[in-house]
């Protein structure tokens, strides 16, 4: 059977692609990933076996941007907390327990202005938010104007002004622990951190400390490290001002379908020796 | 007056001979008997426009939270029993879906502006059709008959005010016209929806889910079925509950009271 395998469609990081597996599949030509992030793959190793790789960047962008906005709004308006108040058997609560932060007119800082980051900017603009962004490279002027986004060459400037900091970068050695103690301390004490990228982009221990001591106001995390977090008393699971979601950024019926379509396109292209729509090369 | 308290009835008005003005928080005035107040020579004011953006924001927050199963997801993520996140756990896509807005006033229109950025197809039903430019600006299609909106929408959002005409606007018939995959979002008033019919519709999967900032009564009795349904998100009437907006509402109410007491024209007077 192993000689027949020419393509792998990687669903949710399974199977694990290691040297053993690659050696056992001599005719493997392509691995298509069910998502945009490729940090779970050793790109150089795979390439050394002459196996092509593809991700699905277009399919995931809208649903991930939607999830980012969902988390931003849920955090600002304390949705999880107030839902529990609304259904709780205890009817005692005071105004202070339910008052949230106004989203319209607030400042959103987007770290990572790729496809997903830009779609977030488009959505945030409709909420009349002021948009700042930090990116490896600056976007074109028309792209900036279309969403009213201001470039912050230094991440510090973004962190100091934002009411909501949205992290939308891919995980690379450069972005590992991008948001640490220093960055959190630059943020406003009323600000919320929203992470829809990868858990390892944030120094999780520093984040816990910052939340516990009021250095920042709240966090909403679709991703953590590891996933799920260890159950035995992990502080992030207990903080009132933290919303955690189970890596649902791309988990919709429509997007799952689109991801599979994109993966199949890439697999067929690779098997037919044609250019692949979203080939990923080891950098 | 905050959160409909105190109850303004004949007894109260008779006991307060020098009462000149009732300043009500928020935009809704369905809890006030305007004719009764007028007969006692008492003026009424509200805070109509300042609540609009926060309420529209909340409508969007509820739609996104419901479709992406945010509350359920959080519970799973923090539950002591969770060992892994199941691969087949899915929500519904908001981008590109069809939103039907019932009540295209200030709040409804702001919802449309926000939904457009999510590339949603927008239908609306209103007493009157909006101007062409207003419709084009948000890409909204007018549905003269509410049935057309209900049959095509993935999300039905209620943003009407409560009047005798909108009382139980959404009942068994309307819920049955909705898609079985549709979600009802209510940011208007609990009584706009026939609540018993809603419970039945949710239990029998006539519609998929509901997200309600308003119910009747508020709060619901603790044994009410709506509090137990997995596909329902309920928030405690927080449409305008942000620090900034509450502050401005307080300022506006104070202005109205001061004008009323001074015999000057009252800002935001309700006639």
Describe the fold and architecture:
The complex is a heterodimer of chains A (283) and B (271). Chain A has a 7-stranded parallel sheet with strand order 6-5-4-7-8-9-10, with helices on both faces. A 3-stranded parallel sheet of chain A has the order 1-2-3. By secondary structure, chain A is of the alpha/beta class. In chain A, 37% of the residues lie in helices and 14% in strands. Chain A has 2 domains: 2-58 and 251-280, 3-Layer(aba) Sandwich (Rossmann fold), CATH 3.40.50; 61-244, Rossmann fold. In chain A, helix 3 (57-76) packs across helix 6 and helix 3 (57-76) runs antiparallel to helix 11. Chain B has 2 domains: 10-49 and 242-262, no CATH class; 51-81 and 90-234, Rossmann fold (3-Layer(aba) Sandwich). Chain B has helices at residues 10-15, 34-39, 52-67, 70-78, 106-116, 132-138, 146-152, 172-177, 195-203, 243-261, and strands spanning 21-23, 43-45, 98-102, 121-125, 140-142, 155-158, 183-186, 209-212, 232-234. A 7-stranded parallel sheet of chain B has the order 5-4-3-6-7-8-9, with helices on both faces. Chain B has a two-stranded parallel ribbon with strand order 1-2. In chain B, helix 8 links the parallel strand 6 (155-158) and strand 7 (183-186). The longest helix of chain B has 19 residues, at 243-261. At the A-B interface, helix 3, helix 4, helix 6 and helix 11 of A face helix 3, helix 4, helix 5 and helix 10 of B.
